[in-house]
Design a protein that fits this description.
There is one protein chain. With 198 residues, the protein is of the alpha+beta class. It has one domain: NADH Oxidase, CATH 3.40.109.10. The chain is 40% helix and 13% strand. Strands 1, 2, 3, 4 and 5 form a 5-stranded antiparallel beta sheet that branches. Helix 1 crosses helix 8, helix 2 runs antiparallel to helix 8 and helix 3 runs antiparallel to helix 9. It is globular, with a radius of gyration of 19 Å. It starts with a helix and ends in a 6-residue tail after the last helix.
Length: 198
């Protein structure tokens, strides 16, 4: 699939068939995630990859309650055979920018213009989403609004790593209902693209 097709087909999919993702496809997607850019080549990310009902079931049971899972719109989402939790390690960036070749940048505790650890891990998550589309899969990025500490504990994640969300992935089942938010439409280019100056 060419890149423009991948970008145009990328959407958040919320209903999956449950069919397994071939290991080689998953490995290619994870390999692509590791190709994301990172400030100072810090690569301060990690990914917890959950495959199959026992592993993904732990994820859903930890981050949600039975009432949420019982919602009639959830079964297709809960059938997703893969959940990837992208994690970021802020300390890896602080350590990297303390090294001799980066110390001259003077990025002290209060001087980071943006939290690069979040930006870079978000780049990696986007590569996962795009790679899923390229493989013919569907994917959804979701925030972890509840119980993220419990999830990190259940998954054995070291305390220096924090999740930015989760990517739910699998084969679309064709039952996906479009998000009502899509009725808002895309903002017109002239309202977001400013050429030469604002």
């Amino acid at each position: 699939m060419d890149f423009q097709t991948v970008v145009q087909r990328r959407k958040m999919v919320r209903s999956f068939s449950g069919e397994a993702v071939p290991p080689e496809v998953l490995e290619q997607i994870l390999g692509n995630a590791q190709r994301a850019p990172s400030a100072g080549f810090s690569q301060g990310w990690a990914f917890v990859v959950l495959v199959g009902p026992s592993e993904t079931g732990l994820f859903w049971e930890t981050i949600s309650d039975p009432e949420w899972r019982a919602d009639p719109y959830r079964p297709g989402l809960l059938r997703a055979p893969v959940v990837i939790v992208p994690l970021t390690d802020e300390a890896a960036y602080r350590a990297r920018y303390g090294e001799a070749d980066k110390a001259a940048y003077g990025l002290a505790e209060s001087e980071w213009p943006v939290p690069y650890w979040l930006v870079d891990t978000s780049f990696a998550a986007m590569l996962i989403l795009l790679s899923a589309v390229d493989a013919g899969l569907g994917a959804l990025f979701t925030g972890l609004n509840h119980h993220d500490d419990e999830l990190m504990l259940a998954l054995g994640v070291p305390p220096e790593y924090r999740p930015i969300g989760a990517v739910v992935m699998g084969w679309p089942d064709g039952e996906d209902k479009p998000s009502p938010s899509l009725a808002r439409g895309h903002r017109p280019a002239e309202s977001v693209i400013h050429r030469g100056r604002w």
